[in-house]
Description:
Blueprint: H1 18-35, H2 37-55, H3 60-91, H4 97-130
Helix pairs in contact: 2-3, 3-4
The structure holds adenosine-5'-triphosphate.
Amino acid sequence: MNLDYNGKKPQTGKNKHFWQSLRHALGGLWTAFKTEANLLRDVWFALIAIAFGIYCQLHYLDWLAIIFAIFIVFMAEFWNTVMEHLVDLLVDHQYHPLAKQIKDISAASVLISAILALLIGAIVFGHAIFN
Ligand SMILES: Nc1ncnc2c1ncn2[C@@H]1O[C@H](COP(=O)(O)OP(=O)(O)OP(=O)(O)O)[C@@H](O)[C@H]1O
């Protein structure tokens, strides 16, 4: 039987209450930021966009678009990370053409989210600068 760091049987079943779910979700957030360098880069882009938005005194609808763009990129990065881990777990780092397809398509979803964020940023900040 596997034991965790405290010598207890690790949890593999469902969470028993909301706080336990929240604790695990926050743990997942921490693990993702600790292990994925791409996420830290995205945090910097998000902070720059927010700082520039404050400087430009954006309209609240523009803020909605910027917040949407930021969260879409983070969601895509998180799901890409999940896909990478799942594939590695399944094929144990052995080459498989389907593993390549899954990882490449998953990476493409991050690319698409980044293009969306760039378009939103260009429209919102372009409008703020030239008007
Ligand atoms: N088991 C595998 N079988 C086939 N191809 C693989 C496998 N693992 C990785 N690859 C190829 O290597 C690429 C990079 O792998 P992976 O996504 O794990 O690295 P990464 O550096 O974390 O990627 P990202 O920059 O998207 O975060 C994949 O897109 C895929 O083309």
